[in-house]
Amino acid sequence: MNLTAAGRARMTLAAVIVAQALLIIDITIVTVGLPQVQRDLGGSLAGVQWIVAAYALTLAACTQTAGTLSDRLGRRLIYVLGITVFTVASVLCGLAPSVAFLDVARGLQGVGAAMVMANSLPLIATAYEGQKRNMAIAIFGTVLQVAGAIAPVLGGLLVTLDWRWMFLINVPIGVVAFVIALGFMPAYRPDSARSGRIDWSGAALLMLSLGLLNFALIRGEDQGWGSAATLLQLAGGVVLLTVFLAVEKRVTAPIIDLSLFRIPTFTAINVIAFVSRLITIGGAVYFIFYFQAALGMSPMESGLLLVPVFVAQIAGGIGVAKLQARITASQIIVAGYVVKGLSAVWMAQTFESGAGAWSLVLPMAFWGLGGGVAGVPILSTSMNVVAKDKAGMASGTIMSMFMIGAGVGSAGLGVVFKERIGEVVIADSALPEGSRQAVADAAAQVDLERLKAATPPGFEVVVQQTMEKAISSGTSLVTLTTAALSVISVVVAVFFIRERDIVAAKAKNATAGTARESATDDRGGAG
């Protein structure tokens, strides 16, 4: 089929959206089916938890390297390879005879997912220019938000059939993405001076360091944040990362070109990406916990209460994409985080008062709107501020910051949440003084079995009411913390996102494009 350049661009966007939506769904969907997996395959609780952790670890560890490989070896090549690895790994997951086998297959899935995820934004940036690129990225981001919203529901439906369908459903979708990519996606040809040159030692150091740091974030709560194991993992990750940065300064084809961080806008957008996921992922976890533990809502009711968030995010993202030609990225990001911060303060007051669920709909909708408004320019600016031949590298960096931010948010805000719960319980004079500390310790860990054992006879209702009050207070404090963190994004956007950096990158890309065309003409004339 012969397609115009515009047609190929649309097919590229379709392939990217299909694959990326698949990855987003896969991150969430599996959590729903863990109990069924354990009942069917057996295995320890730790082994079952690794079904989620193995995917998260390899995804986080490999994303940056995968992005740089796409710059050096070709975007379509890495994308198609990633889809292939992910789809084959999905088959292995669906046929897994044991939890250990499934853990390994999930790790392989994460490697394929990293190759696809790091390539998504560069493929869009290569296919589109100017405002069309901004609109394409807005559509891309909006579909991902929808995918994230439907993932728990889809997971619940598939688990009712058989947990294996959580993985096997990926196969036909992966095949469709593979066919579209191979048949219609234009081949990106890297600069011959950089093609094939890979800093493998740097890649290994980076993957090890990010893997170790993410392992510490995933396992920190179970191990204890102050335990020797967690501290050694964090220290080891930092040491390896320091060695990696020293290596990158000396090689000619680095995995991360550190000169990119001398561009204020590039550094700023990565800081904002980190904070955005810290706020969004870290905060949303405790919203759901509040709905179910303090308000007594079912998982389905909790999901429905989050619908206004997703609807507002989608509306904000699509609406703001049309404004990017007239309003600067900095102004849009500032507006988004001002709305997100103020709505977080509003929600915090509502949580603290123990008000009903419906009183949360409006502030949560504004919270989602702020995220949708800010999200689109974060993604588009990350591509608009760098040369096209480094788009994969830049995408790998910002995707890594998203994932690290999510991990730090879940861990850090979890500490805030649990500390507040313990404080509220220990201060409750309605509990007997002799058992108050034991109840507070169990409550602070949100360990329901331990809490039940620590509850004095006849005080079950009192403990339940105290826990509901403590969870409300903890969620309120977490939300206020996200409001304070929103201020960081506002300050960074105001002072460090500069339109002249974007203009400079656009001029550089135009010059490079002219040079490539001249080189092609010269070769054609010589032939």
Give the helices and strands, then pairings.
Blueprint: H1 5-32, H2 34-41, H3 45-73, H4 75-94, H5 99-127, H6 130-161, H7 165-168, H8 170-184, H9 200-223, H10 228-248, H11 264-294, H12 299-305, H13 307-321, H14 329-353, H15 361-384, H16 391-426, H17 433-444, H18 448-454, H19 460-496, H20 499-526
Helix pairs in contact: 1-5, 1-6, 1-8, 2-3, 3-4, 3-5, 3-9, 3-16, 4-5, 4-8, 5-16, 6-13, 6-15, 9-10, 9-16, 11-15, 11-16, 11-19, 13-15, 14-15, 14-19, 16-17, 16-19, 17-18
Rounded to the nearest angstrom, the radius of gyration is 24 Å
CATH topology of the largest domain: Growth Hormone, Chain: A
Report strand %: under 5%
Question: What is the share of helical residues?
Answer: over 70%
**Tally of helical runs:** 20
Q: Which CATH class of the largest domain applies here?
A: Mainly Alpha
| Global outline | globular
Helix and strand pattern = HHHHHHHHHHHHHHHHHHHH
What is the β-strand count?
A: 0
The SS-based structural class is mainly alpha
Structural domain count: 4
Query: Which regions are unreliable across 5 or more consecutive residues at pLDDT < 50?
Result: 519-527
Give the distance, in angstroms, between the N- and C-terminal Cα atoms: 28 Å
Query: Would you identify the CATH H-level superfamily of the largest domain?
Result: MFS general substrate transporter like domains
Average pLDDT, all residues = 83
Query: Under the CATH scheme, which architecture of the largest domain would be assigned?
Result: Up-down Bundle
